Batch of 3 targets.
Target 1
Amino acid sequence: MPNSQASASTSPPSRRTFLASTAVAAAAVAGGVPLLTGCSTEEGSGKGGTTSGKELKNLLPTYVASKVADPDIPSVNGSSPGYTKAPPAAELVASVKGKPGHGGSYTMFEPLWGTPPPKNNAYYKAVNDALGATVKLQPQDGNTYGEKLGAVLASGDIADIVVIPLWEMGGRIHGAVSAKFADLGPYLSGDKVKEYPNLAAIPTAAWQMSVFGGKLRGLPMPSRPLGSVIPYYREDIFTKEGYHVPKSPAQFLSLAKEITRPKSKVWACDDMWWSAQRFFGCPGEKPYYWIEKNGKLVHKVETENYLEALEWCRKLFARGYVHPDAVAGKANDALTRFTSGQTLFYNDGEAKWYGATFEQAGPNPDFRIQGMDWFGPDGGDPVIYLDPPAQIWSFLNKNLAKDQIEEILALANFIAAPFGTKEQRLIDYGVEGVHHDMKKGVPVKNATGVRDVQDTYRFIASPQASVAYPDFPRMVEDYCGWMRRMGEFARKPLFYGMQIQEPNRYASLYTPFEDLAKDVTRGRKSIKDAQRAISDWRSGGGDRLRDWYAGLLDENGGGA
């Protein structure tokens, strides 16, 4: 998980930064560590690695909901369920009988955002003992994971279990998944998954995104529906200063002027480009960057919404409302600027809601952040597109024997245990008295737990995403409330839940627009430059890519 100890960056927030912050949060539960700091598909292939609805029906595992613990805050409008209380240890349920493993030993290659725990620590030993097998973790720096992953896949010296995030699926890695990893369909498709009840309780949409090259290959980490970008604000300071939360882009600019006091080292916000796109109803990132208008696919960059978002964000920078360090592109310090009160608005992934709350609980007990409700361009209802239902997967080496695959799936079933189980308490908190202590009925990690009990095992497989932070129940209520409200306006993007690999000749078409947005919002380039770039995109392959996606839409009966 990106944390406060990460090396400084000189580039503004990237798509990868937000995706990592969001997807990893699905693995973080109550008392978790603070989340702060090949082969290619043939280009002529019509499906680009996608699978039609009829084929999917035969591939996907049967869904059987977990009945372990009813949430304190049920799902509304598709929101994730919330848990504000922790069951006493004596009331925890065992979702797995005995030890699932049979003495096997497996290597696991995975990303880690933070300081790796010591090898052979007591947490690893406790988990491996409970598993009845050994998982030898090989954590890698999450910030450079893609480079190492590509080299490993190309070398052929591949671990038994390999974790790959969605944002690393570019280039040849997506195609390598089909060539290097096992087909799990014979073990999990249909009712076969019932052998592994915790895996059966993973939502179907997450399994749908686990189909690569026409085969069920991934074990997913389900995502929350709207957490990739959240516009945070300092509710404690707003209350103290009497500020009112804006309800339109125009009100935001007016409040930003009121807040900004450079002599007092206070600016309204950090770089808000990612929020700007949602204020103006832009669709999401690849492959969700299309909308359908008058029977034709229109790319995000071709919409007036996109240009309006650029122009609004440009005004924030031009009027001096953005912190100068953000103007300079020091993205990794954004959270520090926010928690120190130098900025009052800040956008990032959902992991920061708990991470910042955890970090500030001791030194700043009055600290409280909120997610600002999205609004439309004129202050009306927003248009919000759902995030992918899964963004991280683990894959099993295709050279593993059948009994080894079955053993790893049994381990994954243990690790995917939901909130309220003995397995979940162990995976997320370690051993009581060693890694955590019960305080006021809540498990709280001690220093050893914070160091060692990180979200390493959860990358193998995770339960349905929830908001389970009983150490900060008010934060759970705040986040679930925000999701419930925003869920009313959420819609599925085109190609929702589809695992798409664009032909290689189009793979880099969209890449220049991230730098272009930075240049336009900071005044280094103009809106006219953006319009020229859009025209170049069309003639340089964008129109052909549009036709390719239109073919996918037709093959899949009009999309999600």
Target 2
Amino acid sequence: MPAAPLSTVPSLPSSPSPSFRGRIGCDANSGYYAAPRRYRLHLSLSSPHSLRIAITHSLLGLEETLPIELLPAVPDMPDGGHSALLPLYEASSHRHSGPAVAPVLSDTWTGRIVNSHSAHIRHDLARHFGGDGPDRPVLHPHGAEEEIEAVEHLCQYRIDEAAQQAGQADVDEAARRTALSSLLRVLGTLEARLAHQDFVLGDRMTAADVRLWVALVQLDTVHRLHLDAAAVHRVADHPHLWTYARRLAAHPAFGCHLDLDGIARRHHARCQGLEAAGAAVQILDWAAHITDTPHAPAERHSALHLRPSGPA
């Protein structure tokens, strides 16, 4: 049975654009170019944007090439920024007036920020730092960019935003029903695909799987808390999709970065809404599916620090 096509959706209003959009080039003539240990990632793994980068970083085996500085799960500044990033922001933008947010890719040679846009950072890691080792997936295979972009759009608008709107108490009931129906249609399309293939785009892992897995984590650990119980049961009624999520949780590049406690603390620090009955209906026990595996020396501290201490 052929997989159902993935379609994009019209652009919707989004959050403010990241401040820095420098890109990694191919050689010294490009300005910013790939060089071992020249760059540093600054990530808060409770944030889905940072979590996607951390997974990509591990899949590509960049522990020795591109160090990671981990930031607290809950930003320590009133504007939602991290005080540890303020010097970088101030050095990179004179009188920077916005929050010093993660994720950030910084250049240790200049002491400035290169990029703070999650999708660009992930793409540049895969294009310019990813090796050709047999255990390293080709996250952006030739000819797949359009489908990967379609999955990005579906996750942002038809999973993340639809789930958020479906649980908003200050939205009228008809709008909540419409949002839930949109969410369920996309989950159904993905369910049909994953009934016949191991990954979103076929038999090999791509960047689309990183994007979808983090969206499913957010759906179960954040958005579910504001849905009613009946809606959560309908979301959970996609066995191939959630089996896929459970399988990737057991992959060391995914599960070792999952900071369940941090996600909960970050959500409760920012959320103004009320919990609904769906908060009591957990879809996956994420912590139970994370496999303890050996880590490289550069990873070991963060893996031990981020291991969830109990059920989600």
Target 3
Amino acid sequence: MSLQRLLSSIGPAVLSGVCAPGGTAVPVGDVVIAEPDGGFDLRPGDVVLGVNLTDRAQALRLLSSCAGRSAGALLLKAPVAVDETVVTAASAAGLPLVQVEQQAGWAQVVSLLRAVLDSEGYADSGSGTAGAEAGDLFGLADAIAAVIDAPVTIEDRSSRVLAYSARQERGDEARVATIMGRHVPDEVNAHFRRYGVFHRIAQDTGPIYVPAVVEGTKPRLVVPVHAGGDVLGSIWAIVPGPVPAERAEAFADTAATAALHLLRRRAGADVERLVLTDMVATVLHGQEGAADAARRLGLTTGPWRVIAVGVRCEDDEEAERQRLTVWERMSRFRGSRLRSPAAVVGGVVYGIVPAEMVGPGPDDGPGWLETLRGTTGEPAPLLAVGGLAASVPGLARSREQADDTLDLLRTGLIARHQAVHDEVWATVVLRHVARSAAAARIAGVGPLRQLVDHDRTHGTNCVPTLYAWLQERGDPRAAAARLHIHPNTLRHRMRRLQEVVALPLDDPEVRTALLLQLTARRYGAEGGPDDAVGTSG
């Protein structure tokens, strides 16, 4: 990809050229982050980001290093990006210098750059047309902006920004945040949802006027983009107020052109996603060709862990949006040079991440997993992490462990929103034993069935009492504490239990068999650990 193509794809709202002595047709490679006074690996053509660099001397040293190693471009923020000495040095060294807008977060810039570079790589490989279509969409956004005489964004059905027009100065804070994050901010989206915008986008074909209600926003005119009854996306224009009918109609007419672009783009994206999904699934299931698929995904040096993410939304569209959001986030984790070792398989989002990412953040702050959960809205998804995989064959086992852990979270056997297999393996074992026992129907063998029926008929607590007594190896105080009752109450219940059915509890084999049956009942329950074996007093 050329520097010119990269700049035009991301747009002047984020990047703007300061100087390019040899022109912007120069090819660029990967994205490299250079922290102040820190070393970094650099190959010819790489785009270098001077993250948090504000000192002129530091900027000049970095510029000299980049020029000497044939970097593709250096990206800086003001004031050093427009410092006369720095600009002159860049021009003399023949190094393209690009200014990053002040409000753009460096993490967002890295994500945007890699997204564009990755899509170009897949387009060149023949796996899709998303890279080519991106440029067309930006041109279309500019053309539509001329029709409506207002800044425009083109978004997919999940409110992700696909392209935006010029005229940024006539926008508002929400538009800037949308372009920076490539997604409509959650609080603004909530306002649109309350106003019924998304429902109308799904139902209507004409323009929808949305008045300004949220502070910092201006009114919008929205045109749904449909094709064959399917919602492909929408076009949003920021307007000063109600739009004359003639102009609104002309704006609505642009939806037909946008639909063709989005259909072509979706077809290309679907091909890409299918290819990626197939490669990731091959690796995660240890199928033939897993080693080659892992190499193509950039999985060369472990260890890794497999993450399985399950969304909990009842609304199908919102569930799909959450899955796509999680997929986007995991597909561009730090260190990935390709688009994604992540895929949606069977309604679950799987990701393969470096093992060190599963843990607390810097200074014991929120870790990457917690950050991932916080990007999707409510209800937050369930995150399950498999065990360590030191090699590619081990990824299949890590995926199985992630699946097992996700099952515990979904059933409530682990009462949390995220878990690592290493921490909950004992419950995983009990869950598997319970399922095997259920298949063999051992829970209904022997006198336990009489106690279950008695509890159900008379409202007694024989089963949880016996389970607590067995778990605490006959210690009445410990069993009573588990049930939150007095030890004398526990003893009374055990005597009443023996009146219902005689149990030779002095026989170790009987105790073991009963404990296995009760464990199978508890951990085989689909609704949670207390559905089959109560634990209340």
